[in-house]
Specification:
Layout lengths: L4 E6 L3 H16 L3 E2 L8 E6 L4 H19 L7 E6 H6 L2 H5 L5 E3 L7 H10 L9 E2 L21 E5 L1 E2 L10 H5 L3 E2 L2 H13 L4 E5 L16 H9 L6 E4 L9 H9 L6 E3 L7 H7 L5 H14 L4 E8 L6 H14 L3 E6 L17 H25 L4 E9 L7 E5 L10 E3 L9 E9 L4 E5 L1
Parallel strand pairs: 1-2, 1-3, 3-4, 4-5, 5-6, 7-10, 10-11, 12-13, 13-14, 17-19
Antiparallel strand pairs: 8-9, 15-16, 15-18, 16-17, 18-19
C-alpha cells in the first residue's frame, strides 16, 4: 500500500466529472487514498477543462492555487498533476508555461492514473523525468472501468459516447476529444445496472451529442433502443437526457421520451442561435425553420415538456438586427431553462478566422439582455406551476431558512437549472416525494410534501 493521499479536483462539464470518477476508482484500486482536503494531500490532481477561454482561465487559476500547497510548504504535497482537456489541447507547451506542475496527462490516461503516479513519485525531479503523456484522443470508457460515485448520491451521469463529429465552426471538442465514439448498448446497460444497485435513482445521459449515439457502431443501434433498455432497469426511477442536437432529434426519439414513464419530460436542446446567417457561419446543421419544427413537435408529442437551451451571443457577424431576432425568438418560444455564453475566439477553429468581430463589452451587454429576459420568462413559467403536484427527488438538507430539504423535480436538471426547496418533512436523500408547489421565484420552486 502507498501511504500517499490524493486530492482530486474536477473542473468543467459532467463528461469530465465521469473521467474524474474513473480516476478516483483507479487511484483507490492502485493503493492510493483520496482526501477532500488539499492540506492533507501528498499529491494534488486537477482534471481540467479547455472548451472556451473562461474554462481555460479557471483551470489555470486552480492549478496555480493548488501549486501553492506544494511551493509554499503548506502541507505534505510534493506532486502536482494536471489532467484532461487542457493538457490534451496544448500538449507540451504547458511544460514551459506551468513549471509548477510535475506531470501533464491527456484525456486518454484516466484509467492509468495510478501507474503514472507510481512512476512520477519514484523518479527524481530533473530534465530526464518525463513530464507529459499526451496520446491520441481515442479512449472510450466501458463498464469495466469502475467509477468512484459519491456514496448515497441520488443521481449519476452516464457517458454513452465520447468525442464529436459535428465540426461546428467555433468548437475545439473534436480536436480535444476526437471523433464521436459510442459505447455498445449492453455495455451502457451493464454500467447503469451497477449504478442502480448502488442506490442511484436518477440516471443522467450525457455525451457531446447524445443524438449521434450509435451511428458509428455495427448495426447502428438507435438512442431510442438504448433508452428502452435503460428504462427496464429496476431501482432507477428517473432517466434524463442531455445534449440533444436539434437536427438529429426525431419523432421516434420524442415518442420514446413521452412513452417511457421513467424518462423525464425534459429536453436539453442546444440551438446556439436562431438566425440562419449566424447558424450557417457557425456550421450548424438546420436553420430557424428546423429549430421551430423540433420545438413544436416536442411540445406536441411530450405534453408539459420542459425545454432547456444554450445560446452563443457575439459570434462574428451577429449584427444588431440579428441579435434582435434572437431576443424576439426567446420572447416568443419561452424556454423553461436557458444558458447564454459569450462567443470565445478559439485558436484552431474555423470561426477564429472570421472577421467582423464584436467587442467584449457588447457581447456582455447582449448576454445580460437575454438573461434578464429569461429571468422574467422563467418566473412566469414557475409561477404557473404553483398549486400543481410534482415529484421531487431529495438531494440533501435544506439550504434556505425555513426549508427542511432541497431537491429537484423532473423539470430541473442538476447544476444547470433551479432547485425545489421543501418547506416541511424530512425525507431521506434519494427519496422521491410527491409535493404541492406553493411558491416560485425566477429559477427555484418551493413545495410542501403531501
Amino acid at each position: 500500500m502507498h501511504d500517499k493521499k490524493v486530492h482530486l479536483i474536477s473542473l468543467g462539464c459532467p463528461k469530465n466529472l465521469v473521467d474524474s470518477e474513473v480516476m478516483g476508482a483507479a487511484l483507490i484500486d492502485g493503493g492510493y487514498a483520496l482526501t477532500d482536503r488539499p492540506e492533507e494531500a501528498s499529491v494534488i490532481l486537477v482534471n481540467t477543462c479547455a472548451f472556451i477561454l473562461p474554462a481555460k482561465e479557471e483551470s489555470i487559476e486552480e492549478i496555480l492555487r493548488m501549486a501553492a500547497w506544494k511551493s509554499e510548504g503548506k502541507g505534505p504535497c510534493t506532486c502536482l498533476v494536471v489532467t484532461g482537456c487542457l493538457p490534451q489541447r496544448y500538449a507540451r507547451d504547458l511544460e514551459e508555461a506551468l513549471p509548477e506542475a510535475d506531470l501533464f496527462l491527456g484525456v486518454g490516461e484516466a484509467p492509468h492514473i495510478a501507474r503514472h503516479l507510481d512512476r512520477i513519485l519514484a523518479s527524481p525531479p530533473g530534465p530526464s523525468r518525463r513530464r507529459s503523456v499526451i496520446g491520441k484522443p481515442t479512449f472510450l470508457m466501458n463498464a469495466g472501468h469502475r467509477r468512484l460515485v459519491p456514496e448515497g448520491g441520488a443521481s449519476a451521469y452516464i457517458k454513452i459516447a465520447d468525442g464529436c463529429s459535428n465540426r461546428c465552426a467555433y468548437c475545439v471538442i473534436p480536436q480535444i476529444r476526437g471523433k464521436a465514439r459510442s459505447r455498445p448498448v449492453d455495455d451502457v446497460v451493464r454500467e447503469a445496472e451497477d449504478l442502480a444497485a448502488h442506490g442511484i435513482r436518477e440516471l443522467i445521459i450525457t455525451a457531446q451529442d447524445t443524438t449521434a449515439y450509435g451511428h458509428d457502431l455495427k448495426g447502428k443501434p438507435k438512442l431510442e433502443t438504448l433508452l428502452h433498455e435503460l428504462a427496464g432497469i429496476g431501482g432507477l426511477a428517473w432517466i434524463r437526457l442531455l445534449y440533444t442536437y436539434p437536427a438529429h432529434v426525431t419523432d421516434s426519439l420524442l415518442g420514446t421520451i413521452a412513452d417511457e414513464g421513467k424518462i423525464c419530460g425534459y429536453l436539453d436542446l442546444p440551438i446556439q442561435h436562431c438566425d440562419d446567417a449566424v447558424l450557417g457561419a457557425m456550421g450548424r446543421k438546420g436553420g430557424n425553420a428546423l429549430i421551430r419544427e423540433v420545438i413544436g413537435k416536442a411540445r406536441t408529442i411530450i405534453p408539459g415538456v420542459a425545454l432547456r437551451t444554450s445560446l452563443i451571443v457575439g459570434f462574428p457577424g451577429e449584427t444588431a438586427r440579428r441579435f434582435e431576432r434572437l431576443l424576439a425568438f426567446i420572447r416568443e418560444v419561452r424556454f423553461d431553462h436557458l444558458g447564454v455564453f459569450t462567443y470565445s475566439r478559439e485558436e484552431g477553429t474555423r470561426a477564429a478566422a472570421i472577421p467582423l468581430r464584436i467587442p467584449e463589452r457588447e457581447k456582455e451587454r447582449r448576454r445580460n439582455l437575454l438573461m434578464e429576459e429569461q429571468a422574467l420568462i422563467s418566473r412566469e413559467i414557475n409561477a404557473a406551476l404553483v398549486g400543481s403536484l410534482q415529484e421531487v427527488l431529495i438531494e440533501g438538507p435544506g439550504e434556505l431558512a425555513g426549508s427542511t430539504r432541497v431537491g429537484r423535480c423532473r423539470r430541473q436538471a442538476p447544476e444547470i437549472d433551479g432547485v425545489t426547496h421543501l418547506l416541511g418533512g424530512t425525507p431521506d436523500r434519494g427519496a422521491i416525494v410527491t409535493c404541492r408547489i406553493t411558491a416560485a421565484d425566477d429559477y427555484d420552486l418551493f413545495a410542501e410534501p403531501i
